[in-house]
Design a protein that fits this description.
- The chain is mostly beta strands.
- It has 1 helix and 31 strands.
- The strands form 8 sheets. The chain has a 5-stranded antiparallel β-sheet, with no helix packed on it.
- Strand 22 and strand 23 form a beta hairpin.
- It starts with a strand and ends with a strand.
- The relative contact order is 0.13.
Amino acid sequence: MRLFRQRTLLAPYVAVLLAAFCALPAAASTRYSIAPVLFPRYITAGPIAGVDARGEMAGVGLEVGSKLTDCVYFDGTLLVDLTHGSGNLCHFSKMNARGVAVGQYFDTSGYLNYAVLYARRKLTYIDKLVDSFLDFDDDGLAVGNDFSNRFAVYAVGARKIVFELYDPARQCAMSFPFAINDRRTVFGYDQCVGGSVRYETVQDGVFTYFELPAGYSLQTIGTRAAFNDGNQIALSQAGSGHAFLWSTGAQTPPLDLGTLAEDPEGTYAVTALSDTMAVGTSSGGYSWVWTRAGGMVDLDALLPFNTYGWIQPEAVDAQGDIGCASGGEPFTWLYLRRVR
């Protein structure tokens, strides 16, 4: 395990940034401060798995000159590279609001997969029940699959299965779970009816099936889909380019998140979703924040100033803090703290 303390030469820069930010009038639109996470030369910043209100982030580091990925964790002060030099692959898929991260570890020497858990500065390999964890809620329940590729909800701390994602009434197993929220509800799909995709939510073993509204399709981020405690998901509408929020199975139409004045003809994608806000990007290169009260706003307009190049929001917590990837030099992460 290696620890990398933030470079001391950043201190004057951060002080000036904070001073400028604090000097802004109360009516100014700036609502976020910026804290960069610097990576060492041998590793570049990969996808972010989560962010919490303590300024912590977890995710993936990409080792320069190799195809190896490391599990990395930023605790607000230190960047912790948990698996550098092991010769193995590791990535975090999700960090919850309590700063606990889950993911997958691949032992290239033995060709074995393990689910991993990082908590209290300790990386734990869980190899008896689980192949990998896909998502994780704030109460310690994770969605994952075993070595027979059967999906279930696990109580990670107790190392036991809470319920399998299998509907005995229809004799159908969930084909893939996208996410689990803090109400113990899993969102995913199966292909038990003629091989076609059928969406469903599962709460405490009870399956509810639904169809997406006509003309809309699910937005996915890699193998995940945005899903919050209101059972909302992100949709796209053919021909509009807009992003929409919709409560699964609701009879009401999807909610149009709109567009930015700077990019009215762009195509919009939701990259992360909390209970009160959505963040995403547009095809015109803009990053944005949406709230019901304020609508869609250019994220750069909410920052004191941005010298890091383009930014892409990848995670958001319940307080509205955002974990972003940055395309500046060097490529890094940015922690955007919402001003309370």
